[in-house]
Specification:
Elements: H1 4-26, H2 29-51, H3 59-72, H4 84-87, H5 96-110, H6 112-128, H7 133-157, H8 163-186, H9 189-209, H10 217-235, H11 255-258, H12 268-279, H13 281-300, H14 305-323, H15 346-372, H16 375-407
């Protein structure tokens, strides 16, 4: 039988190799080119926006909430599998080294989620404060310490099954995270010391309290499986992922959308795609979340036409890239073969639905622009975003789908 160290090393190598394999498909030349283009446009807009930034802009509050959300979502990647509940459960008392390695791996890999946003916020932070490079490094070190603390608490809470305990912990941790991160960016040493003492006592209390508790194997395995499926969903946007598990949810209040499809055998795929779009949390959730986030960002822009266009186009692009896998949602369904004309209308039905989704986003983004900017910026954003939606659907998406079908 393999030792604990060999089990961890084998699994982490498999995890890294699998991630690397799917990233190779995800970060293809076309996508990198688009990201470079959007990144350059975003950087230019960011720079111009900073030049017009008012002194009372709540930059520290925005940074605080952003990093509070990042660190509170911390959890340890255990890389456990369903079979472990049978084969590893009897030797639970020998797995301390395994979970220590899992904790170190999680902290190192998730530290990039702190470092990258801090780099992006650096110009804004320097603009609104008198901070320098040394101050930024201190902030980074303290933020990583907060990240470490959240991982420790999250691991301790994984020994609990009570929902009340978990919700109470989330509320307390959110308050502590917001407070300590705010004082980190505000460079208030006294309150930082007080809060770190409180946080130390908090993590020590739970760490000692769970020493007599057993691991909740079903809970840990379910959480690990959820993280894997989240990555598979993202990778499935670019290539087929055999291990992806799909789920559907009944949403009767959206049945009116299905009724808009005309009853005809040529509209088989249009009906199926609309049905899948509203029943699958993967697609509908992505559309709703990105639309809300994009609208919030648009509301903070300072009447810059380029900024409104870049943000609107960026979030429509991100939405399209993530829901493009809808085209293959019924790839293995044989029922459509009963309708002779269904396959002919498959691509056009898909493109029609995608264009409708992007038009809805375009209208929402344009209305947000109308509320916070001038009429000319509203018109410019509406035209540019609608034009991008048309080109993105009927040129990029259409050609990419045709190319993928030829390669199969």
């Amino acid at each position: 039988m393999k030792s604990v160290n060999e089990i961890w090393q084998t699994r982490v190598n498999q995890h890294i190799n699998e991630t690397r394999m799917y990233l190779k498909y995800m970060l293809n030349d076309h996508l990198l080119f688009v990201f470079i283009f959007l990144g350059a446009g975003g950087a230019l807009t960011y720079q111009r926006w900073l030049e017009t930034l008012s002194p009372d802009f709540p930059a520290i509050v925005i940074m605080t909430l952003t990093f509070a959300f990042i660190v509170i979502t911390s959890s340890v990647r255990t890389l456990l599998k369903e079979a472990d509940i049978v084969f590893l459960l009897p030797m639970e008392f020998k797995l301390r080294g395994y979970f220590q390695k899992a904790f170190r791996y999680s902290f190192i890999s998730q530290s990039f989620l702190v470092i990258v946003p801090l780099i992006l916020f650096t110009p804004l932070y320097f603009k609104v404060t008198d901070a320098n490079g040394k101050t930024l490094l201190i902030c980074l070190g303290l933020l990583l310490l907060v990240k470490f603390w959240n991982l420790r608490v999250s691991w301790a809470m994984s020994f609990y099954t009570e929902a009340s305990a978990k919700w109470s912990d989330l509320i307390v941790r959110f308050v502590l995270n917001v407070s300590v991160i705010y004082f980190i960016f505000s460079q208030d040493t006294l309150f930082l010391i007080i809060l770190f003492v409180i946080m130390t006592g908090y993590v020590l209390y739970f760490s000692n309290n769970v020493k007599q508790k057993a691991l909740k194997w079903e809970q840990l395995i379910k959480r690990e499986e959820g993280k894997k499926q989240s990555f598979y969903k993202l990778a499935n946007l670019f290539t087929d992922v055999p291990k992806l598990k799909k789920q559907a949810k009944r949403r009767a209040y959206l049945d009116w959308m299905v009724k808009q499809v005309k009853y005809h055998q040529e509209n088989v795929y249009e009906y199926l795609y609309v049905r899948a779009l509203i029943r699958s949390g993967d697609y509908l959730g992505i559309i709703v979340r990105l639309t809300i986030i994009g609208s919030i960002i648009l509301s903070f822009l300072n009447e810059q036409l380029t900024g409104y266009i870049v943000v609107s186009v960026l979030f429509i692009f991100l939405t399209g890239i993530q829901i493009m896998s809808l085209y293959k949602h019924f790839e293995l369904l044989e029922l459509t073969n009963l309708y002779p004309n269904a396959e002919k209308k498959r691509l056009s039905s898909f493109l029609k639905i995608m264009f409708t989704v992007f038009l809805v986003q375009t209208v929402i983004y344009s209305l947000i622009t109308f509320l916070f900017a001038t009429v000319s910026i509203f018109v410019g954003t509406l035209i540019a975003t609608a034009l991008f939606s048309y080109l993105f659907v009927f040129i990029y998406m259409k050609n990419r789908i045709k190319k993928n079908e030829k390669d199969v």
